Amino acid sequence: MQPVDIVGVDAAILFSDILVVPQAMGLEVQLIEKQGPLLPDPIKTQSDLNRIKVPDVNDTLHYVFDAIKLIKQELNGRVPLIGFAGAPWTLLCYMVQGKGSKTLMKPKGFVTKTRSWRILYCK
C-alpha cells in the first residue's frame, strides 16, 4: 500500500511466489539463502506423480485469496490491483528439476520420456 499512498503509482501489485502451488500439491519447498528455491524431493518417475495431490485451493491457498480481498478493500477503487501467475510449464520445471535451471534439460527429458505432463494437467 505504501507505493500507492506515498508515491502515487498507477496500480498496486500483489506478489505471491509461484511455488506455493507445488507446496499446496504436497511437495516440500525450501528457500535457500543465496541459492534460491529448492524442492528437495522432485518428481523423477511416473510413480512419483502419485504423491501429487490436487488440493482444495480455498483451503490450502486461502491466504492468497485473503490477501487479495484485503488489498482490494484497502485500495477502495483508487487504483487497479495487478497480479500474475506462474505458467504451468514453469511450475512443472520446478517440480521435476527441483530448482531453477537455464537449460531445463531434466523437465524436457521427463516430458519427452514419460509424457507425464498430461497427467499433471489433467489430474
Question: Which SSEs are present, and which pair or pack?
Answer:
Elements: H1 2-7, E1 12-13, H2 20-24, E2 30-32, E3 36-38, H3 57-60, H4 62-75, E4 81-82, H5 88-97, H6 105-114, H7 117-122
Parallel strand pairs: 1-4
Antiparallel strand pairs: 2-3
What does this structure look like?
This protein is mostly helical and 123 residues long. It has one domain (2-122). It has seven helices and four strands. It has helices at residues 2-7, 20-24, 57-60, 62-75, 88-97, 105-114, 117-122; strands at residues 12-13, 30-32, 36-38, 81-82. The strands form two sheets. The chain has a two-stranded parallel sheet with strand order 1-4. Strands 2-3 form a two-stranded antiparallel sheet. β2 and β3 (36-38) form a beta hairpin. The longest helix is centred in the middle third of the chain and has 14 residues, at 62-75. The protein is elongated. The chain starts with a helix and ends with a helix.
What labels would you give this structure?
123 residues; mainly alpha; two-stranded parallel sheet
Summarize the main sheet. Answer: 2 strands, parallel
% residues in beta strands = 5-15%
Give the topology string: H per helix, E per strand: HEHEEHHEHHH
**Cα end-to-end separation:** 38 Å
Radius of gyration: 17 Å
State the low-pLDDT regions, or none.
none
Q: Assign an overall shape.
A: elongated
Share of helix, binned: 40-55%
Structure annotation, total helices: 7
Q: How many separate domains?
A: 1
Cross-sheet strand order for the largest sheet: 1-4
